[in-house]
Amino acid sequence: MKYKTMQGREIDMEKLMRQNEMMPAVGNMRVNARGDELGPGGVVVRSREEVVAEYYETNPNAASKRIKQVVNPVQDNPQTAPQPVKTKKSIDTTETEE
Question: CB atoms < 10 A from the CB of 41, how many?
Answer without folding.
Answer: 5
